[in-house]
Amino acid sequence: MTQYTTEFGALANYRKGGVMPITDEPRRFVFSNIFEVAAKSRPWERVVVGKNFEYTIEVSRTEGTSPWYTAAHDEFVLCMDGAVEVHLIKLDDPDAHVDPESEGAHVIDATMPEGRKMGRIRLRRGHMAMLPVGAAYRLVNDAAPGVVIYQSILGPVSVEKWAEICQH
Amino acid sequence: MAMVEAAPGQPRISNPRGLPLQSAFRTNPADNFTGYRSFKAGSFEFTRDEYFAHIRWPNGQHTMPVDAFLRALMRDVAWGFFYGTVNFDGVFGTTNYYGEVEMFAGAMNESFKAAKRDYIERFKSDQLMRIFKEMIGDWTNQGYDPFAAPMETGVPWGTKNGDNDPAVTRQRVTAKRMVGLPGDTPRRTDANGFPVNRMFADVPQDEPEVEVEPGFEHEVSAFNLFAYLSRSDVTWNPSVCSVVRESLFCPTSEEFILPVEHGNDRCEWFLQLSDELIWKIRDGSTGRDTATIVCRAGDICCMPSDIRHTGYSTKRSMLLVWENGSPRIPDLIREGKAPTVAVQF
Ligand SMILES: [Fe+2]
């Protein structure tokens, strides 16, 4: 039987494709590579690589400990390279940290937000976790840098730098 | 622009062409020689023989190899007419207006339109769906699965020979919040009938370690998405795995050819999760070739709302299709209130 090798990308090892135009313009396809974007960004910077109206896909290089975040809606995180630990706290007063009408992830400026410990999740490549509304979360990776993507909404910590990251 | 008025409280159904609804449907008895039924929806007639599906309408006819036709019909059925236009090929297809649907011949084809030979009829979605489901059921033979890659299934050719209802009546997976949450779509395992695909035998099957404090079992949750996708028994069938309001992550496994040319009515993002997929991009209304895109693991790009796309994947690959399910978008784009591209920079 044929042996197949599944190719996943990594920070240190990815093969970027691209748009080959006939009559269309490459920039209309907003083409980038998440590993390249993560490699060229600061640790935990949440760079928007996909945007559909208010909704985003954001990519971060995981290196050390992230700030605490919270949002007025669910978010999801998918580990694309390396391993990362997710810490979750049920906030005593979520509205004190984030307007319930607001969108996107917000940083909580505290070493340990007030609330009850919900649990801890250890993600490796391909694993997805929910970042539930009403919770504070942080990500920790003390091993070699890795990459995560978030399914979220454009907010105060979302960084847009399309001209830098996209083929045009 | 003429619009159909919907019942109060229901979202308005757009009808930009101002077409009346057709309500005549007919299923004919099986043909004495081929054994297949023929079908009629409005003025469109569908017949199949050993090799081909034939479509006839008042001023024209069209023929497709039956394998390609069944693979396309299967997606149109499974997706509930999906988003925007599902071109079965360069001639025949459907356009979804979410409650009502247009079926067309040549309406997305430059040559048909220039000669004014394009033909369109409009139906209630549930009524056309009923006849499409009968058609896929009757025209699919035993041993053939229109969802499967060609190397993984039998052949569709020949006269009527049994059926494959379990394959053609699969439900599209739609998680309400996230796969694996209590009460939501379950993970795939050997035990529930989803073995690892032969091309994903090397994909790690480990699950994340989840430590939950008592009382938070419904909120602290994670699963191995790549393992989940390695166990998909279908190809080119995006299924909702996680939901942020109208933001839908619809990952899918892809092998061989996307059986339709999808002309979305909104922008649609692709994040290639593994391996390589080649996209063929054509103009949405004329079908002219406009670009080729090579996507490898980690590449992300967006299809503008004015194109159609089909894709090729030799090694079975994992693709994250990302949709915005907002019902407002197609009208915003038609009315010029939203751009045809997702990001301008
Ligand atoms: Fe599509």
Write the layout of secondary structure elements.
The complex is a heterodimer of chains A (168) and B (345).
Chain A: E1 18-21, E2 32-33, H1 34-39, E3 46-52, E4 55-65, E5 68-70, E6 75-81, E7 84-91, H2 94-97, E8 106-108, E9 115-123, E10 127-131, E11 135-153, E12 158-159, H3 162-165
Parallel strand pairs in A: 3-12
Antiparallel strand pairs in A: 3-4, 4-11, 5-8, 5-11, 6-10, 6-11, 7-9, 7-11
Chain B: E1 3-4, E2 13-14, E3 21-22, E4 25-27, E5 39-41, E6 44-48, E7 52-57, E8 60-65, H1 66-78, E9 85-87, E10 92-96, E11 100-105, H2 110-114, E12 119-124, H3 125-139, H4 165-168, E13 209-212, E14 222-224, H5 225-230, E15 242-244, E16 247-257, E17 261-263, E18 268-272, E19 276-283, E20 289-296, E21 299-303, E22 307-324, H6 329-334
Parallel strand pairs in B: 3-12
Antiparallel strand pairs in B: 1-2, 4-5, 5-6, 6-7, 7-8, 9-10, 9-17, 10-11, 11-12, 15-16, 16-22, 18-21, 18-22, 19-20, 19-22
The complex binds fe (ii) ion (FE2).
Fe (ii) ion is lined by residues 262, 264, 268, 309 of chain B.
Q: Averaged pLDDT of chain B, please? A: 94
Low-confidence stretches of chain B: 1-9
Mean pLDDT of chain A comes to 97
Largest interface summary: A-B, 71 and 78 residues
Order of helices and strands of chain A: EEHEEEEEHEEEEEH
Overall radius of gyration of chain A: 17 Å
Q: Percent of residues of chain A in helical segments?
A: under 10%
Sheet-strand content of chain B, in percent, reads 25-35%
How would you spell out the order of helices and strands of chain B?
Answer: EEEEEEEEHEEEHEHHEEHEEEEEEEEH
